[in-house]
Specification:
Elements (H helix, E strand, L loop, with lengths): L3 E5 L4 E8 L2 E4 L9 E2 L2 E3 L5 E3 L1 H5 L8 E2 L24 E3 L4 E5 L4 E3 L1 H20 L5 E6 L5 H13 L3 E7 H9 L7 E8 L4 E9 L2 E10 L4 H7 L1
Parallel strand pairs: 1-11, 11-12
Antiparallel strand pairs: 1-2, 2-3, 2-4, 5-6, 5-7, 8-9, 9-10, 13-14, 14-15
Helix pairs in contact: 2-3
């Protein structure tokens, strides 16, 4: 039976996992690591690099190395602050979306196309690990993502050749991983501190149902910001 993978498509790092029996297992990438940097680059020769290898050469090839692209998926230019736009690569503002300029291959890419390369990397490594082609996935997103951002995430999966069965809120996924679906009715607070974002969500949990009652977040507060200010 074909496996369905779960993917955390993060601002700075991404993870892919699968259920083996009754336990979730994080799939290691080709470097043997459990997390893959959400970084995509093109070399001067036009070679595509994804993950750790792309991150390593970022300083020498900053104009053609794309990171924190999740900030721009499904977002309109007037929704993004000047500080969030302060990336090393060239960001092109259009009426309703962004594109990034890649001089190395003389092309423009949407954020979804860049994210799709990360998803391809994850699913390729998962295919190697499982011995079967990965085609179906569930992808998590921040609870405060709007419909446009959620659709952009699904579009990235489609570009990567994935059938995205469902988009799940990250705090809901965290609650499931913690096993709260097996407990009595509770009201819980989930803190989600990522590489580029920080959000908190209040959830009602009970009888296998998760309801997000309220959520708030800061799209400019995360591990990346800590690193810049240290």
């Amino acid at each position: 039976m074909q496996k369905v993978v779960g993917i955390d498509l993060g601002t700075t790092n991404s993870v892919i996992a699968v259920m083996e029996g009754s336990q979730p297992v994080v799939i290691p990438n080709s470097d043997g690591l459990r997390t893959t940097p959400s970084v995509v680059a093109y070399t001067k020769k036009g070679e595509l690099l994804v993950g750790q290898i792309a991150k390593r050469q970022a300083v020498l090839n900053y104009a053609n190395t794309y990171y924190s692209i999740k900030r721009f998926m499904g977002a309109k230019p007037n929704e993004i602050s000047a500080e969030s736009k302060a990336v090393a690569y060239t960001l092109i503002e259009e009426t309703d979306n962004f594109k990034v300029k890649c001089d190395a291959v003389n092309k423009f890419f949407t954020p979804q196309e860049i994210s799709a390369q990360v998803l391809r990397k994850l699913t390729t490594d998962a295919t190697t690990y499982l011995g079967n082609e990965v085609q179906k996935a569930v992808i998590t997103v921040p609870a405060y993502f709007n419909d446009t951002q959620r659709q952009a995430t699904k579009d990235a999966g489609k570009i990567a050749g994935l059938d995205v069965l469902r988009i799940i809120n990250e705090p809901t996924a965290a609650s499931l991983a913690y096993g709260l679906d097996k407990k009595n009715n509770e009201r819980i607070l989930v803190f989600d501190l990522g590489g580029g974002t920080f959000d908190v969500s209040v959830l009602d949990v009970g009888d296998g149902v998760f309801e997000v009652l309220s959520t708030a977040g800061d799209t400019r507060l995360g591990g990346d910001n800590f690193n810049k200010n240290c």
